[in-house]
């Protein structure tokens, strides 16, 4: 393989522009704040959801899922790929939705060719094919947050690390499926029409979250939906259309910032500030340092009074 896969964020703007760069048309992602079927319905035409959760690294693999049933036969009739490499699960989850909605969604030439090429492979070989796709990996990595301190391609998780994992849920051929590349097969959660999807997927997610301690709140849910600008145009809602266009511009700006390493810039800025303080003579530099220490201590004391600890700051 010619390169590694970096970690990407569970962010609607990241996922939306990632799939656009892969050639997908008229699809976007929406972050859901609550586990409410009505909130999901308000997103318009829904293709599936992507769920991010803390993965129990010390847990042994079971022949029986904790919820639903393995459907080994279904793996031959849908796109389901085993996850064979670390950090690729976000892109693998969104492809699990998109490639199983081909026909409803314009997935583009490259993804269609990838789907056709890997279609007859078993899940393990599909996963290897995905991991070795230069196009998909390069697009995925172009949305990774720049870090000068960590080489994500070399980092291996241990049981003491907080490891997070993406999986997909979507309705396929009248059933609700959970598509998780770390599982041996798709997991069926029973009959589910497209109209029933919001209610049934929320029930599954509530049961899953319920298996965690009440103190665990680090979950994220993204809905894969039709581009909301299409609905705004069809309804003649110029205000909604303008708001969506503005949000797209904000996503572009945020994604551009993710690709830049600002450590050098901050270092040069600090050098300039220190040089200016020293040039002022006297004890200007010492007073500036002491003032900064005092402000830092005050912020720390204020957080303690509010019952906020460092562990609460994400």
UniProtKB/TrEMBL annotation:
Q: Outline the extent of the UCH catalytic domain.
A: 4-226
Q: Where is the composition biased (Basic and acidic residues)?
A: 291-305
**The protein's enzyme class:** hydrolase
**Which Enzyme Commission number(s) are on file for it?**
3.4.19.12
Which residue positions hold the site described Important for enzyme activity?
Answer: 180
What superkingdom heads the lineage? Eukaryota
Residues of the active site: 89, 165
Write the record's keywords in alphabetical order, separated by commas: Hydrolase, Protease, Thiol protease, Ubl conjugation pathway
Q: Which reaction does it catalyse?
A: Thiol-dependent hydrolysis of ester, thioester, amide, peptide and isopeptide bonds formed by the C-terminal Gly of ubiquitin (a 76-residue protein attached to proteins as an intracellular targeting signal)
Similarity section = Belongs to the peptidase C12 family.
| Descriptive protein name | Ubiquitin carboxyl-terminal hydrolase
Q: Which organism is it from?
A: Massariosphaeria phaeospora
């Amino acid at each position: 393989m010619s390169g590694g896969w970096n970690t990407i964020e569970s962010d609607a703007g990241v996922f939306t522009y990632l799939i656009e760069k892969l050639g997908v048309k008229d699809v976007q992602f929406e972050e859901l704040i609550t586990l409410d079927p009505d909130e999901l319905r308000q997103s318009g035409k829904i293709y599936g959801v992507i769920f991010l959760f803390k993965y129990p690294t010390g847990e042994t693999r079971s022949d029986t899922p904790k919820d639903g049933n393995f459907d080994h036969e279904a793996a031959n009739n849908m796109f389901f790929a085993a996850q064979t490499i670390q950090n690729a699960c976000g892109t693998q989850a969104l492809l699990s939705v998109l490639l199983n909605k081909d026909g409803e969604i314009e997935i583009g030439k490259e993804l269609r060719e990838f789907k056709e090429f890997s279609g007859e492979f078993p899940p393990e070989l599909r996963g290897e094919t995905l991991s070795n796709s230069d196009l998909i990996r390069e697009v995925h990595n172009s949305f990774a947050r720049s870090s000068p301190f960590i080489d994500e391609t070399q980092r291996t998780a241990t049981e003491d690390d907080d490891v997070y994992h993406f999986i997909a849920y979507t309705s396929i051929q009248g059933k609700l499926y959970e598509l998780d590349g770390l599982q041996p097969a798709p997991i069926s959660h029973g009959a589910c029409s497209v109209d029933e999807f919001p209610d049934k997927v929320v029930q599954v997610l509530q049961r899953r979250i319920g298996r965690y301690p009440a103190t665990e709140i680090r979950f994220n849910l993204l809905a894969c939906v039709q581009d909301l600008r299409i609905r705004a145009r069809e309804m003649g809602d110029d205000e909604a259309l303008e708001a969506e266009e503005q949000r797209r511009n904000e996503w572009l700006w945020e994604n551009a910032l993710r690709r830049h390493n600002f450590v050098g810039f901050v270092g040069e800025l600090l050098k300039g500030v220190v040089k200016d303080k020293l040039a002022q003579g006297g004890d200007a530099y010492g007073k500036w340092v002491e003032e900064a220490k005092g402000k830092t201590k005050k912020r720390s004391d204020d957080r303690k009074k509010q019952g906020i600890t460092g562990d609460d700051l994400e």
